Inverse folding.
């Protein structure tokens, strides 16, 4: 006995016809429910564990200049609420005989480490001198907002 195979295009057509014939049966005779709007994500995402109204930052930089030798020359002296957000202030010390320009980057975080905002500033420091710097960010703070020296470059 010899079996003949049906050509592939014919088998494909029969399979598609069977699926097309079954779809109306699966749809049933009931009306479709009215579509409902689904909320779209906001620019900042709510995070469990944060107080109401506090949101995490969504534009956190990933490539932050950070040189350990330069970082040792920078101190954060205050971390406090500012107009519309939070600010960190401190000093940068230059112990060399040449002027330097540093980029100081601060992450403002919750006490659990969630980044709420970021900021950076450039500070020019003369040879054998100190210079003050300030970094501020617009954010809604938590009761225990922290200022993290993320990088100095």
């Amino acid at each position: 006995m010899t079996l003949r195979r049906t050509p592939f295009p014919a088998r494909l057509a029969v399979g598609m016809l069977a699926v097309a014939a079954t779809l109306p049966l699966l749809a049933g005779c009931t009306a479709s429910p009215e579509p409902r709007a689904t909320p779209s994500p906001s620019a900042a995402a709510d995070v469990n564990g944060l107080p109401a109204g506090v949101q995490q930052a969504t534009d956190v930089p990933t490539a932050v200049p950070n040189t350990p030798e330069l970082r040792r020359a920078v101190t954060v002296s205050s971390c406090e609420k500012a107009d519309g957000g939070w600010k960190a202030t401190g000093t940068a010390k230059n112990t060399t005989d040449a002027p330097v320009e540093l980029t100081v980057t601060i992450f403002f975080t919750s006490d659990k480490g969630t980044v709420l905002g970021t900021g950076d500033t450039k500070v020019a420091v003369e040879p054998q001198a100190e210079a003050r710097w300030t970094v501020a960010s617009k954010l809604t703070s938590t009761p225990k907002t922290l200022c993290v020296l993320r990088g100095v470059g």
